[in-house]
Amino acid sequence: MIIKQNLELIEIKRNDKNTNADLIFLDLETNKTYSVHMNRQKWNKKTEKFEDDEEKATKVDNLLTQELGVTFENLETAIGETHDIYVYEDKERPFNSLFEVNEVSKPDELFFKKYRGGIETTIDEIEDTGDRIRIIFKVESTRYYSSITIDKDKLRYGDWINSRNQFLPNALLEKKAYQNFQKIFNLSFERKDELINHKIKIYPAQAGKNYYLEFEYIEAIEAINERNE
């Protein structure tokens, strides 16, 4: 993450339905612009469309009021104001933000070499991002995630759509991902919070030039071993 300090808001680009907007900030030193996307709609998995959502709209308004002193409807009045922009260009899906985001990092070559034999850690959080279930954990205070086990049980269910430049959920794969979650943890996804602090082992893997992480749920393995002793 890189912090670009005191960038000037120079333009607001709204979509035709006025449901989302891109806030364009200018770095006067480099003459480069940084776009921050604001969407007041929520993705509906069943209809596979973004739809109006009062809670999401209120959340966006509150954020804009806190950071820029304006609401979504009067964003243009903030043009000329300056704000720090948090640039997350090393993420799986790069983005810019008005505030620091507690995001997860991607493993790199150094991580791959250092932990090639695997490393034990504990589950910090479990979330459904709309295209995968992420098992989030920390290694040396940095957050990472995995969506596939060493047995290749996948928790990913999104298809990359080039025309929209994003992952969209595949209904059949989504069902399979939730079945895999049940298989791995012997719990339904609704009970995911019961798995916080449970032990897992992480194994770095490589596909071409990209690195990713596989996991093994060792808490269950230890429980089985104890019963067999």
Description:
The chain is α+β, with helices and mostly antiparallel strands. It has 4 helices and 14 strands. It has a 5-stranded antiparallel beta sheet, covered by helices on one side. It has a 5-stranded antiparallel beta sheet with strand order 10-9-8-13-14. Strands 4-5 form a two-stranded antiparallel ribbon. The longest helix has 15 residues. It is globular, with a radius of gyration of 20 Å. The termini are far apart. 17% of the residues are buried. The mean pLDDT is 89.
Describe the protein's topology:
Layout lengths: L1 E13 L5 E8 L4 E8 L1 E4 L4 E4 L1 H15 L13 E7 L6 E3 L11 H6 L4 E10 L4 E7 L2 E5 L11 E4 L4 E4 L1 H15 L13 E9 L2 E7 L1 H11 L1
Antiparallel strand pairs: 1-2, 1-6, 2-3, 4-5, 6-7, 8-9, 8-13, 9-10, 11-12, 13-14
